[in-house]
Amino acid sequence: VQISFHRMPPFLKQKKLFVKMDKINIFIYCTSKINEVEICQYYNNRIELSKDENDTSISQEEKMILKKISFTATNDIRNLIYNLMFDDSTALYNYIDKKKDDKGHIINSKLSVLILGSGLIGKEFFKAACWCGQIGDYIFNKELNKDEFKMIDLKISVVSNEKEPTASDKFKSEMFGLFNEKYGKKLVNVDFETLDFGTLEYDNKINEIILKDKPKYIVVAFGNDELNYKAATHLGKSFLQNNLSNENVLINYFIEDT
Q1: Do 18 and 69 contact (CB within 8 A), yes or no?
Q2: What is the H or E stretch that residue 115 is in?
Q3: Which helix (H) or strand (E) holds 217?
Q4: In whole angstroms, what is the distance from residue 24 CA to residue 69 CA?
């Protein structure tokens, strides 16, 4: 079991604008924790208004500047998550659990993910894991006596301390396509739990998930640095107590206030 912490860059704590002047052009890159779509709409509306010579809500000086602006909004939490998933040392695909028969044929490939927390990081990681976890593998078909290319089994467990709205309600309302009966449920098997860290119910559920699902890739992002550290170390102890300390498991926890 490997525990790895990731420090959030300080610019993620608030919206900031970075402006670069290059002769007559202005490039604005806006990094934010909030919905970047709203930021894009605001600035794009200003740019559109600047094109109207009869509009008096914007000064002529600002119109001249807005005509030269190229605006790009980025979600740095999303970038952070994808960098984590594709870095060689922490890549999601490194933690696929493959079971083989006595002849060495792969008979099952499974990726089990555990997310503690349903805030901005937990939500972005959930979406990324759903899409990046759609990995194919060659599974041995005993009846046909040959390998077949199939999607691996993807299981995601989400444990949150948010009670209103619950992670289940929030995720399903914002990502309804992933929970669509026709498509989404064929891609991923998801379980939601609402529990408070430090309670007996929490301990029992974590042990149940560890023993039943055997998660290999874990993200701890409750939104509180001290709680994230405690929850990550608690997970390490839980794997040890269940005699699974030698398993190939990665526990990622996030530190924001430094």
Answers
A1: no
A2: strand 106-116
A3: strand 217-220
A4: 9
Angstrom distances, CA of residue 227 to CA of 45, 121, 198, 216: 41, 15, 10, 21
Work out the pLDDT band at 130, boundaries 50, 70, 90: confident
- Based on DSSP, count helices (H) and strands (E) in the chain, helices before strands: 8, 12
Rounded distance, CA 95 to CA 111, Å? 7
Alpha-carbon distance of 253 to 237, in angstroms, equals 15
Q: Which residues of 187-214 are buried (b: 16+ CB within 10 A; e: fewer)?
A: bbebebbbbebeeeebeebbeebbeebb
pLDDT in tens, 87-122: 888 888 888 888 888 888 888 888 999 999 998 889
Structure tokens at 13: 């704590």
Give, to the nearest 10 degrees, the angle between helix 120-132 and helix 167-174.
Answer: 60
Contact between residue 218 and residue 235 where contact means Cβ atoms under 8 Å apart: yes
For residue 254, the tally of other CB atoms under 10 A from its CB is 25
Q: Of all residues in the chain, what percent are helix, strand and coil, respectively (each to 5)?
A: 40, 30, 30
Which two structure tokens, joined as six digits, stand for 130? 């759903």
* pTM higher than 0.90: no
For residue 61, how many other CB atoms are within 10 A of its CB? 8
